[in-house]
Amino acid sequence: MSRRESRVYAMEIIYQKELGTYENLGQLKVNMKIKDEIFGNTLIDKMEVDKESIVKNINNCLMDWSFTRLGFLERSILLLGFTEMNKFQEIPLHVSLDEWVDITKEYCGEDAKKLVNGVLNKYKNILIQDGIRID
Fold first, then answer.
1. CA–CA gap between residue 87 and residue 42 (Å, rounded)
2. Ranges under pLDDT 70 in the chain
3. Is 60 in a helix, a strand, or coil?
4. Do residues 74 and 112 touch, judged by C-beta distance below 8 A?
5. Total structural domains in the chain?
6. pLDDT value at position 37?
7. Rounded to a whole number, what is the distance in angstroms from the first to the last CA of the chain?
8. Is residue 7 a part of any domain in this protein?
9. By CB neighbour count within 10 A (0-12 exposed, 13-18 middle, 19+ buried), where does 117 fall?
10. Cα 87 from Cα 96, distance rounded (Å)
Protein backbone atom coordinates (compact mmCIF):
# COMPACT_ATOMS: atom_id res chain seq x y z
CA MET A 1 0.00 0.00 0.00
CA SER A 2 1.34 3.43 -0.89
CA ARG A 3 1.31 6.55 1.23
CA ARG A 4 -1.55 7.80 -1.00
CA GLU A 5 -3.56 4.71 -0.16
CA SER A 6 -2.79 5.28 3.53
CA ARG A 7 -4.17 8.81 3.22
CA VAL A 8 -7.33 7.49 1.57
CA TYR A 9 -7.67 4.83 4.26
CA ALA A 10 -7.32 7.51 6.94
CA MET A 11 -9.88 9.65 5.13
CA GLU A 12 -12.33 6.72 5.03
CA ILE A 13 -11.93 6.12 8.75
CA ILE A 14 -12.35 9.78 9.70
CA TYR A 15 -15.27 10.13 7.28
CA GLN A 16 -17.06 7.24 8.97
CA LYS A 17 -16.26 8.66 12.39
CA GLU A 18 -17.60 12.09 11.36
CA LEU A 19 -20.78 10.37 10.20
CA GLY A 20 -20.94 8.44 13.45
CA THR A 21 -21.08 5.10 11.64
CA TYR A 22 -17.68 3.63 12.47
CA GLU A 23 -17.47 1.59 15.64
CA ASN A 24 -14.21 -0.32 15.41
CA LEU A 25 -11.27 1.70 14.17
CA GLY A 26 -8.98 -1.33 14.41
CA GLN A 27 -10.82 -3.31 11.73
CA LEU A 28 -9.84 -1.01 8.89
CA LYS A 29 -6.33 -0.28 10.20
CA VAL A 30 -5.39 -3.98 10.13
CA ASN A 31 -5.42 -4.16 6.33
CA MET A 32 -2.44 -1.83 5.80
CA LYS A 33 1.20 -2.84 5.34
CA ILE A 34 3.33 -2.09 8.38
CA LYS A 35 5.13 1.00 7.00
CA ASP A 36 1.95 2.52 5.65
CA GLU A 37 -0.02 1.41 8.68
CA ILE A 38 2.33 3.44 10.86
CA PHE A 39 1.83 6.52 8.68
CA GLY A 40 -1.95 6.11 8.40
CA ASN A 41 -2.43 5.33 12.08
CA THR A 42 -0.14 8.16 13.18
CA LEU A 43 -2.01 10.60 10.93
CA ILE A 44 -5.34 9.53 12.44
CA ASP A 45 -4.03 9.54 16.00
CA LYS A 46 -2.42 12.98 15.72
CA MET A 47 -5.61 14.39 14.21
CA GLU A 48 -7.78 12.94 16.97
CA VAL A 49 -5.53 14.23 19.76
CA ASP A 50 -5.54 17.78 18.36
CA LYS A 51 -8.96 17.85 16.64
CA GLU A 52 -10.37 20.85 18.51
CA SER A 53 -7.36 23.00 17.61
CA ILE A 54 -7.40 21.76 14.02
CA VAL A 55 -11.09 22.67 13.64
CA LYS A 56 -10.29 26.19 14.93
CA ASN A 57 -7.50 26.49 12.36
CA ILE A 58 -9.82 25.29 9.59
CA ASN A 59 -12.48 27.81 10.64
CA ASN A 60 -9.84 30.57 10.57
CA CYS A 61 -9.00 29.64 6.98
CA LEU A 62 -12.60 29.40 5.76
CA MET A 63 -14.05 32.61 4.38
CA ASP A 64 -17.73 33.21 5.22
CA TRP A 65 -18.15 29.53 6.05
CA SER A 66 -17.68 27.17 8.97
CA PHE A 67 -16.40 23.67 9.51
CA THR A 68 -19.83 22.39 10.56
CA ARG A 69 -21.34 23.50 7.24
CA LEU A 70 -18.88 21.45 5.19
CA GLY A 71 -19.70 18.03 3.80
CA PHE A 72 -18.36 15.07 5.76
CA LEU A 73 -15.78 14.14 3.12
CA GLU A 74 -14.49 17.71 2.94
CA ARG A 75 -14.28 17.79 6.75
CA SER A 76 -12.31 14.56 6.81
CA ILE A 77 -9.93 15.72 4.10
CA LEU A 78 -9.29 19.08 5.76
CA LEU A 79 -8.81 17.54 9.21
CA LEU A 80 -6.19 15.16 7.87
CA GLY A 81 -4.62 17.68 5.50
CA PHE A 82 -4.14 20.23 8.28
CA THR A 83 -2.74 17.52 10.55
CA GLU A 84 -0.27 16.33 7.94
CA MET A 85 0.88 19.83 7.08
CA ASN A 86 1.41 20.75 10.72
CA LYS A 87 2.66 17.52 12.30
CA PHE A 88 4.70 15.77 9.59
CA GLN A 89 7.73 18.01 9.14
CA GLU A 90 9.45 15.48 6.85
CA ILE A 91 6.74 15.86 4.18
CA PRO A 92 7.08 19.09 2.16
CA LEU A 93 4.02 21.32 2.45
CA HIS A 94 3.43 21.39 -1.30
CA VAL A 95 3.41 17.57 -1.37
CA SER A 96 0.77 17.36 1.37
CA LEU A 97 -1.32 20.04 -0.31
CA ASP A 98 -1.13 18.36 -3.72
CA GLU A 99 -1.95 14.92 -2.31
CA TRP A 100 -5.05 16.10 -0.44
CA VAL A 101 -6.26 18.17 -3.39
CA ASP A 102 -5.85 15.14 -5.67
CA ILE A 103 -7.77 12.96 -3.21
CA THR A 104 -10.51 15.60 -3.08
CA LYS A 105 -10.64 15.66 -6.87
CA GLU A 106 -11.04 11.88 -6.92
CA TYR A 107 -13.70 11.60 -4.19
CA CYS A 108 -15.56 14.93 -4.30
CA GLY A 109 -16.73 17.41 -6.90
CA GLU A 110 -14.90 20.26 -8.62
CA ASP A 111 -16.24 22.84 -6.16
CA ALA A 112 -14.90 20.82 -3.25
CA LYS A 113 -11.49 20.60 -4.94
CA LYS A 114 -11.36 24.38 -5.26
CA LEU A 115 -12.43 24.84 -1.64
CA VAL A 116 -9.90 22.35 -0.26
CA ASN A 117 -7.12 23.78 -2.42
CA GLY A 118 -7.86 27.32 -1.26
CA VAL A 119 -8.14 26.42 2.43
CA LEU A 120 -5.02 24.22 2.47
CA ASN A 121 -3.06 26.82 0.52
CA LYS A 122 -4.08 29.50 3.01
CA TYR A 123 -2.99 27.26 5.89
CA LYS A 124 0.31 26.50 4.15
CA ASN A 125 0.99 30.23 3.88
CA ILE A 126 0.14 30.75 7.56
CA LEU A 127 2.53 27.96 8.60
CA ILE A 128 5.31 29.50 6.52
CA GLN A 129 4.58 33.07 7.66
CA ASP A 130 4.51 32.06 11.34
CA GLY A 131 7.83 30.19 10.95
CA ILE A 132 6.28 26.84 11.87
CA ARG A 133 7.23 25.25 8.54
CA ILE A 134 9.25 25.93 5.46
CA ASP A 135 8.23 24.58 2.07
1. 10
2. 1, 22-37
3. helix
4. yes
5. 1
6. 65
7. 26
8. yes
9. middle
10. 11
